[in-house]
Every structure is written in C-alpha cells, then in structure tokens.
Amino acid sequence: MQETTRQSFCGSNAGEAKNAKKPFKMSGREKRRLLLLLCFLSIATVAFSQKEDIRVEIHTQGSVLYKEFRPYEISCDIGYNITDRFFVNVRGESTIALFKIDGTKNHYTNAAYGINAGYTFLKNDLCNIDARIGFGDNMRKKQDWKYNYYDGSVYAHLGKSKVKPSIGIGVRHYNSRNSTYKDYTRFFVAIGLSFGT
C-alpha cells in the first residue's frame, strides 16, 4: 500500500514537472484584452482622483475613403498635463490594416506603441480643443508588415465634466520598413472618451 502511494505521488510530480517546463505565452487576443483592462483601470483611477495632472484617452480611429489600404486602430493614451495647456501621452494601439491590391485582399493585425505631445489652444465650458503630433512603431520583428508612423491631429473634448466624449481628425503617414507594401498617407477620423483633458 505504501508502494502504491509512492508511485502515485511520483506520478503526480512527473506531471507537475511537465507542466512546469512550459513557458508562459500570451496570444494576440490576450494581449489586447490586457491592454484594454489596463486602460479601464487607468480610467477608473483618473476619474475618481481629485488632481487632474494625469490624463487618459480611449479612441477608435479609421480611414474609410480609401480602397487600396484602410487602417483601423483602437488606441489608449495615458499622459501627463505638464501645464494647464501642454501635455504628453504614451500610446498603445491594437491595429488592423486592410489591403486590396490588384483585386487581392489581405489584412494584418499589429500592436503599435507610440508617443505624442500636444497643446490645448481653446478652453471653454463647451469644449477643449487641442492639436498634437506623434510617432510610433509596431516594434515586432516577426510581423509580415513592419512600419512606423508619424501623425498630426486635432481633438475636441466636449463638455466640462471629468469624463468627456471626444472627436478628432488627423493625418497619418505609414512608413513601410519592408518591400511587401509601399508607404501610405491617410486622413482619419477618431471618436472616443477622455479623462483629465
């Protein structure tokens, strides 16, 4: 009886050892969910804080007027209000790029990271309007389409509450870093929510 117990105990240890050898890896979907969870936690922190030095923005943006290449992004900006009008943000994006070249359709999903800085040039009870410039990179070696981007945009944050709906328009240049696709410049529209702006 003791021997049976020993065998089952050793067997369970062997099973645990097999499981312990597997490294922890996150899928693309899990990474996007984690990014959204972190954004929502940041939003909750900023929404209930008294001081408005920290800012959080969540937007979805896209370009629908083009046939050859249409990019769509879900982004989260977490930033700091340096002064009453000047700010900097770090940005994380979950992106999908839709291509239709010579009748062949293709798409790529990426995670992109970037930084932007802006200035709020209009502040009143109806809205705050800022202009910003930024750059970013998908920073992943195994992506089929490698690129970095540069953009300029104008955002309006409506109302005077802590949580504001926001809309934006801008232009982004996608600088392709491999020969699969050429460089593209696209106008985009963005909608979302902002906190601490």
Automatic annotation (TrEMBL):
It comes from Bacteroides pyogenes F0041. Residues 1-22 are annotated as: Disordered. This is Outer membrane protein beta-barrel domain-containing protein. Residues 1-11 have a biased composition (Polar residues).
